[in-house]
Amino acid sequence: MQTNEKEIVNGIEVEVEKAQRLIKKVIVKEKRNLSTKEFGTTEMVKKIKKMIEEEVECY
Amino acid sequence: MLLKSMSLTNFRQFNGTQSISFSVDPEKNVTVIMGENGSGKTTLAQAFTWCLYGATDFDDQIVLNKAISQNMGSNGEAFVQVKISMVHLNVDYTMTREQKYTTDSTGNLKRPNNTVFKIQYKNADGQQDFVKESEVELRMKEILPKELAKYFFFDGERIGNMSKEIRKGKSKEFADAVKSLLGLSAFTEALEHLGGRSANTVIKSYEGDYDSKSDSKIAQLRDEISRYDARLEQIEKRLSEIDNEEYTASEKAKEYEVKIAENRDSEKFAQERAKLKSKIAGLEQSKVSSTSGVIDTFNRKGSSWMATKMIHDALKELVDADKLDTGIPDIHARTIQFLINRKKCLCGASIEFGGAAYTELNKVLDYIPPKSIGTLIGQFARECELKSRGAADAFDDISNKFSVVSGFDADYADLSNQIETINKKLEGMLNVGELQKKYTFYDGEVKKLRAERVRLVEEKGGIGTKRERCETGINELVLKDDNNRRVARFKAYATYMYKYLFSVYKEKETEVREQLEEAVNTIFKEIYNGGFSLKLDDKYNIQIQVDDFEGYSGDVETSTAQSISVIFAFIAGVIKMARENNSDENSMLMTEAYPLVMDAPLSAFDKTRIKTVCDALPKVAEQVIIFIKDTDGEIAEDNMGSKVGMRYLFDKKNEFETELIGR
Predict the structure, then answer these.
(1) What CA–CA distance (Å, rounded) separates B364 from B357?
(2) Confidence of residue B166 (pLDDT cuts 50, 70, 90)
(3) How far is CA B526 from CA B163, B545, B570, in A?
């Protein structure tokens, strides 16, 4: 069941559920990368940005 | 992290290449390596730290086998190598450290080259690859930080220092290392990537994504934010330095406070010694004046005093002196001379030169004034009287002064003894004045640092508010542009995620620390059955507390067995938690099991504790590698027998050569 809880960050609405989902995904990604050392900081920043953009723009 | 094998080439006693495999069987996870004293147990344990971190605790930093170095000849070369194979986070690694040694033309060993460290691993495609040279140290830090390595590669003979360190004085790096082992590293990585201090973060990257060409106000606000960020970074750096400096200064202040209390008596003794020294100076002065007084009195009155008896006797004799006086009363020598010169006596008789009258009259001259004996006696008596009067107090005077002089030696010796006793007491005691100066200095430093922290925190708050105002300003401006509105939305999510993760991280960190405290206490009570429990502070320092005394919260002094139990409990607790978190795939924590490599760990324990330690360790640790001397080894094998998967023995050939053989 979806909750529509929202929070205002810097004057912009953030959907809490989406953000929480993103957090889980980012942690999983970080955990995986800690063992594989596949990506450096720049690549990880890019990947996290991509994850945010995909999740936020998905309605 | 599980250790699979190690091979040593020409490393100290290990001549040539020798290999050892460690048990990785979860049911039989103990490897026992036994050997007599001096056979190479410590060397093998040190080979781990030399390979992984390039350091050993040996005084002699030359690790080349002595037999090899003696036979190198002139201009020769030889290599030392230690290779460790391990599995970490399901990746196979091989760490290799190598050092080249050469000799000069006379055959003497030259200063060795720097060691070369390489990490080889199996990449995602199953191919062998090398970690870049510039990243090997960092990768090793991620696998097992050096700050923690000494607890996992544990040396039972250096327990004293470890015990002191584990209870107080651990660095921020140590706390970070423990946090990382407890599985918080995925959090710290995510926080760092989302909005950490580096220039390359998700949030900063979105700020750069704004199209600010159309609006110079946005560019201006962004410049301001960059300035605030730079200052905030400086403040954060300084705050972290202040934490360390304050810790060091307050530890120093405490140290001097304790020393002052221990040496407080020295001040009292020093005052007492000063008083005694002034007494000695007074005594010396009085001795000098009394001695010169004695000499002076003796010079002036000594002869008179010594003549007193003679004078007395002479005067006594002279009492009858008038009987001796045969002179004619009131006749002067001038009268007689006159009569001789006129050659006629008073009676009218002629006085002829040489005649009887002449001779008689000349005789009379000897008895009448000025040569009268009576007169001389009178003068003598008067002089005697004067001398006697002068010498009357000479004896008392000299004896009084002499008693001061002769008493001096006894008093001087007594005072000197007292000073000597104080000096002995003061030996080994420190000067309280100097200690007080140092205490005041460090205490002042602590106060200064605290004041600086308050100032910086206030400044940080102020800058934070200004920064937020700029952010809001930018947001208002960017929302006018479609693309910027999109970027601002992403950034808002990234900011939310960062803040949320940060608060969760703080909670998790506290939770994990509390769990660790519980785990450490459970193991500690299993190993050391006394009425104590352990408390962990936010720097992961351990305090030992007495359970039975309610309200008592101070640390207590420890025995060796207790210290070693604390260290075992701490490490075993960390290992246990790392292992438990590792088994939960859905956990947000990310941890890894770790081995426990122990050199001579049981010597401080009695038989009962050896049994409990041997029972507990293979259960909590994924892998146990234990270097042990023969007698302890037998006890350990009795108690851990069913868990022992591999057994080795050191076969000592001579002082320079040891061979490792399987049993």
Answers:
(1) 11
(2) low
(3) 19, 16, 13
Mean pLDDT score across all residues of chain A: 85
Token digits of residue B513: 């620390």
**Chain centre distance of CA B6:** 37
The pLDDT of residue B501: 92
CA distance B131 to chain A (A): 10
DSSP B605: S
CA dihedral B489, B494, B496, B499 (to 10 degrees): -150
Helix or strand (DSSP H, E) at B592: none
| Tens digit of each residue's pLDDT (9 = 90 or more) over B355-370 | 888 988 888 877 777 7
What is the distance between the alpha carbons of residues A44 and A37, in angstroms, rounded to a whole number? Answer: 10
Give residue ranges of A with CB < 8 Å to any B CB.
7, 9-14, 16, 18-20, 22-24, 26-27, 30-31, 33-38, 41-42, 44-45, 48-49, 52-53, 55-56
- What percent of the residues of chain B are helix, what percent strand, and what percent coil, each to the nearest 5? 60, 15, 25
Interface test with B, best of A18, A29, A30, A53 (most B CBs within 10 A): A30
ipTM of the complex: 0.95
Number of H helices, E strands in chain A: 2, 2
Q: Which tokens go with B69?
A: 């170095």
In angstroms, the CA B521 to CA B545 distance is 11
Provide the Cα torsion B254, B260, B262, B264; round to 10°. -160
Q: At B522, which amino acid appears? A: T
- Report the DSSP pairing between strands B77-88 and B91-102: antiparallel
Alpha-carbon distance values, A29 to B193, B203, B406, B588, B602 (Å): 12, 18, 97, 11, 43
Q: Which residues on B lie below 8 Å from A11 (Cβ)?
A: 472, 475-476, 479
Chain A: give the shortest CA distance to residue B194, in Å. 7
B208/B222 Cα distance (integer angstroms): 9
